[in-house]
Amino acid sequence: MDIKILAAEMDLTCIRAYRLDALKSVSQTVVGADVVATNLDREIYDITIMKSSSRLDNGDMHRVNMDRDKIDAEIMSMGNRGNGRYVSKKELRKPTQMMKNGPGRNHSIGGRAENSKGFLPNSFDRVLLDAPCSALGLRPRLFASEETMESLQTHAKYQRKMFDQAVQLVRTGGVIVYSTCTINPGENEALVRYALDTYKFLSLAPQNPKVGGPGLVGKCELFGGKHAETWLTQSEAELVQRFDPSATLDTIGFFIAKFNVGQK
């Protein structure tokens, strides 16, 4: 809803918001040998997954009205059938009522993001993966009292799973941008190392504008080698952007890596 509301406030009509589990972003619907298109129906779209966004536009309202017309027609045809129980118009209209939630803070007509069952592989030109993270870069919340080594490793594990989904969604020639708001290298440089080692068709791309500093080089071992992370080479570190509160540039802590997707 935040995405839809912000898009409405900015008069942006090119943004479509969907609700789905990020770990199930790739459609698994298969009939025979063909994958069934869902939502985007084999079209190529640019996408920015961001914390931003739109009230229901005219097309959405038209679809709601059509759904209600269909429901009314179904009510007329079904009469009292339905296991011998009369199904009221109100009960049948619940799905469409769920699509509206009344006026929002900007006095828009409201609306809910559509549910999605995922998208076809290679159906996006660009994906921004703004991954959930430990948020150790947010000021004034520069503390780690609620984080442990185990929880930091857990963040890294599900971030890798999300990245695996993003790689499947972006076509050859496309772009993946990975970002976090943490200074933890296990969620940043170590993720980039994983991506480059796992998907040989990925390569780090230069970023413009380049404002942040370089990434971390080398590796880290803790607890007698029980926990080990490999980070970046010197040339790779120059292609990412690390914003660290300890640097002279006065920002919160966050991280950006941009990947070009080569021939899969």
Automatic annotation (TrEMBL):
<keyword id="KW-0694">RNA-binding</keyword>
<dbReference type="GO" id="GO:0003723">
    <property type="term" value="F:RNA binding"/>
</dbReference>
<dbReference type="InterPro" id="IPR001678">
    <property type="entry name" value="MeTrfase_RsmB-F_NOP2_dom"/>
</dbReference>
<protein>
    <submittedName>
        <fullName>Ribosomal RNA methyltransferase Nop2</fullName>
    </submittedName>
</protein>
<dbReference type="GO" id="GO:0008173">
    <property type="term" value="F:RNA methyltransferase activity"/>
</dbReference>
<dbReference type="GO" id="GO:0001510">
    <property type="term" value="P:RNA methylation"/>
</dbReference>
<dbReference type="InterPro" id="IPR029063">
    <property type="entry name" value="SAM-dependent_MTases_sf"/>
</dbReference>
<feature type="binding site">
    <location>
        <position position="130"/>
    </location>
    <ligand>
        <name>S-adenosyl-L-methionine</name>
    </ligand>
</feature>
<keyword id="KW-0489">Methyltransferase</keyword>
<dbReference type="InterPro" id="IPR049560">
    <property type="entry name" value="MeTrfase_RsmB-F_NOP2_cat"/>
</dbReference>
<keyword id="KW-0808">Transferase</keyword>
<feature type="active site" description="Nucleophile">
    <location>
        <position position="181"/>
    </location>
</feature>
<keyword id="KW-0949">S-adenosyl-L-methionine</keyword>
<dbReference type="InterPro" id="IPR023267">
    <property type="entry name" value="RCMT"/>
</dbReference>
<dbReference type="InterPro" id="IPR018314">
    <property type="entry name" value="RsmB/NOL1/NOP2-like_CS"/>
</dbReference>
<comment type="similarity">
    <text>Belongs to the class I-like SAM-binding methyltransferase superfamily. RsmB/NOP family.</text>
</comment>
<dbReference type="Pfam" id="PF01189">
    <property type="entry name" value="Methyltr_RsmB-F"/>
</dbReference>
<feature type="domain" description="SAM-dependent MTase RsmB/NOP-type">
    <location>
        <begin position="122"/>
        <end position="262"/>
    </location>
</feature>
